[in-house]
Amino acid sequence: MSAFELVLLVVMGDLIQQGVTQQDNSVVGAMLAVSTFALWTLAFSYATYRWNRVQPIIEGVPAVVVQDGRPLTKVLDYERLTTADVLVAAREQGIADLQDVRLAVLEADGKFSFIKRDESRPLEPEKHEL
Question: 61-116 belongs to which CATH class?
Answer without folding.
Answer: alpha beta
